[in-house]
Records
---
Amino acid sequence: MSSPTPAIAMKKPARALKLRAANLSDYSQIAALECRFGLASRSYEEWSHVWLANPAYRERENGWNIGWVLEEGGGRIVGSMGNVPLAYECGGKRLLAASGRSWVVEPEYRSLSLQLLDRVVNQPDIDVYLNTSVSTSSIDSVNLFECSRVPVGSWDQSAFWVTKHRAFFESVLVKRHGALLRPLTYPLSAAFRFKDWMSQSAVRAHAGDVESCSRFDARFDDFWEALRERYPRVFLAVRTREILDWHFHVPLRDRSLWIGAVVSGRSIQAYAIFDRNDNRKSGMTRVRLVDFQSLDGDVWLPSLLSWALRRCGRENVHVLESTGRWMEPHGFMRKAAPYRRKLNSWTFFYRAARPELAEHLKDPAAWAPTLFDGDASF
């Protein structure tokens, strides 16, 4: 739910609305509505790709709604929420998750906005509802539907490295507080560059061989098979080559996705995926750690982080960030990232549809959450 989510209680709407299933022909109205309320503009190709190229959608195309809309009597759409199917596995079984996407309603009708969320959360035949982009304005609504916080990570915080210190302080001080503070960026960047160089010796010491991949090839299918066998009790999003290509279609097309893999012979032992997530308002260039998977715990994480930090330096990226601090149960990650920032709200919630699955997912050992889950990175 990556949107300025409607409030729970507003004034009664002046006109009656119809709640109906969305269809692909609604694109122009939905896109215009999203744009009016500050959501990212997407072309029809990008918008429809979320469903038409989604393997989980294609398996049940005739029985899956792409979302729901609130419509006035004259046919004008005043509210919308997408509905994305996602393939998961746990305990050797294929599971179906649903994630809402782009929840937006015109202010006059926000008293009816929960009807859209209800359709996504309580739709039949799903195993889990996932929401990995909860905002401060939507957290009360998610709680109303008895969703739970994912029990691994700190999803109201992020950890990060500064990789271009002077540019970072320019974006933090000058862009926010004015040019008078520019002289401070020189001593600050020098001091923090030295401090970070000293504190990151553990990362530099693990600069092992990492293969930079421009695409997902057949090795990623083999890796997924090995991963699911290695962790059969973990609730894992399916990561076949086909699903990875679908999920990262836009950044792959735009060449803004970094894929690093540790390879032994012809087999992948671990990989990490990073994407560009710049802060355009401040001018800060930023890369996020989206996904890390390994057949050997976190043994290869230092090498992959070292590879990413060096690439940040080469490509003039100011910050490398790990949102949710989901790797921090592992000792290395706790020590490696020198900085923390607080997010506006806890962003990762879920609700299981069946009691036995709900009980299993209470166990932190059942989770390996990353930004690959839900709609946080597509």
---
Amino acid sequence: MKGKRIITVIILFIFFLLPSNGFSAPDNTLQSRLDAVPEGGTITLSSGQYVGPVVINKSITLKGEKGAQLIGNGTGSVLTIKGKNVTVEGLRIEKGGLNSGDGDALIRVEADGVVLKNNHMAKGYYGIHLVRCFNSQIIGNVIEGNEQDEIADRGNGIQLTYGGNHVLKNNQIKFVQDGIYYDNTTGIQTEKNKVENSRYGYHLMFSNKISLLQNRTFNSIVGTMVMDAVDVQIKSNVFQGQRDPRGYGLFIYETKDCEIENNILADNTNGMAFDGAMNTLISNNKVFGNDMGVKRVGDVIDSHFTGNAFIANVRQVGGKKAWPEEVWHKDQKGNFWDDYQGVDLNQDGVGDSPYRMADAMLRLMDLDPILSIFYGSPVQQLLEWIGKDQRVIDPYPLQISSTK
């Protein structure tokens, strides 16, 4: 009997004290759960904090209940997705790395068909970084940068690097460098997003077949910057309150085949600006309350303004170069100008005389602001008479009812 007790004690001693692979404690970390879940499975995280960084290597769904948080260690990306057709939903994700060269992000995506929905991200460099992947859906996420950082030190809210055919919808982004940055990407549908208090709301570089529909940008430096892009649709957006001295609602640079339609550009330093715009149609936009409605910075080729309304701008049109007359109408349809003094006696919706904005003095002020001391003086009247052949002329100015 005594011998049996001794044997039992020895067995218990071995079980509890001696290290052995066969007797190790179970691993309940989030990474182990991600590795263990079968392809196509779902992991639901209850309220609480979970430790990152973690990597998803297979097609699964990761869902967070209210209060579920994934917290990184301040280096690298907090969540990296390398498996196709992954869904991540309902998580708060924080404390990513700040290394721009490594592309640190709160969520980094390197696989196709990923869905990121209703997540809340803060305290990282990029919020979401899609790298050389296709067919993702980024919907209903909130991304917050650090308001205290200088803009140049912040990362972008959503960074798209190569790849494409993504849908970006109903995301809210603030206090970042650029809200959404398109880098050599194609076929992006960008709809009903909101960016505020950043550098550029939407920044397109070397990208094509991009649509911006019903988005908003407030209180940033530039609402939308389009650079070296092709086939861009910018429709029914609101770009308001870009009041920085360099502020623009919309800036088009070295871009071709662009449609700018039904947008509101209000209360900006400059409503719109163009430098190297080719085959661009600017139609049915409301441009009001800006210091300058439209600014020509460089070439405007085979492009037309038609059906737009210019209202309550301190200055309607400006720039260092004269505008060609054919820019201001298409198919005998011009624009509405609230300072037009002509009449429409035949009531066809078009003024009976051309709209003329004599801006010789204003153009000289663009070149040398000190000349503003002569604005409104006899010197200006002389300059306007000398420069009358270089005026902005809209031969088919619309009455307000024609722009509705």
---
Amino acid sequence: MIEIEKVPSPCYVLDADLLRENLRLIADVRRRSGAEIILAFKAFAMWSAFPIIREYFGKSTASSLCEARLAYEELGSLAHTYSPAYTDREFDTIAACSSHITFNSLTQLEHFAPKVLQYDDHKISIGLRVNPEYSEVETDLYNPCAPGSRLGVVASQLPAKLPEYVEGLHFHTLCESDSTDLEKTLAAFESRFAQWILQVKWVNMGGGHLMTRKGYNVDLLVDLISRFCERWKVDVILEPGSAFAWDTGVLVASVVDIVENGGIKTAILNVSFACHMPDCLEMPYKPRIRGAHFDPVEGLPTYRMGGNSCLSGDYVGDWSFDQPLKIGDRIVFEDMIHYTTVKTTMFNGVSHPSMAIWDAKHGLRVVREFGYEDYKRRMS
């Protein structure tokens, strides 16, 4: 376990031993199901940890030119790339860094497919994203199949015969979901797209398969994939992100001040929910704090956690503690690696947490610290 007292504050700390536990589980799913499983950078792109990732997995999915370059330059492989919209200015570089390119619309497919077909450096497999019009995700911000979604082509818009160069279909409907949700999605996907599944070589089932979460039905996932492959005679690709880095690290913060207003005590921290834990406000969700009671306990010292930006809504609460908090106390937010580290901002110029990796054998290694020059370059 990470020795918190040795960690600078604020700092994200990835536990390499916990990461390897997740990687071993995911690798076992790959072995048992026959699926190709690749890392989604949109959830975890800490490239200083890629040497660990490469012990088990060598491929990734990218959603932009920058992610495609990261796959090629730092992970050392061509990316499976999908973007809601490619531009002419960036497309040639994306193609150079990609083994698969999936298009979001028929318009984008028709515009860029000729370039892909003429590309002679390496073969690129072309895919099309489709929308099964079914998802169990309740928060619209994270629901790719919400009414009016811009993501993917619905069945009624597809021609009866796909262009021969289209080799794959891609759908994404999940968000930190169980395999029972995939089971329902597959029923919708197969009922709407059966005639087109017969025309392709691979199906990418997207991300959101949270197979490393306690209680996830891994056996059902393996069974669903195996039977799908047998039924349709296609290869299956999964691109989870959260599952790779689920519960593998923390954000270490400190109490800078304690203020009280209207009977509410707020511990003001040296981190910001808006800048450093945006999903807490977007989903929203309340993170776990090490050593704290998740729900307020009557009679115990109770505090709201406040960020250090000027945004009035930069807070989440409330937690109870066995002892009153003091200025300088450490606050350790659990499970703060996936999606958190990739979505941070430098809003307000607040000090950005450092990045570190911990393992039991070598201890703590701070891999990146941020300062004024990072903010200045970001603001141009």
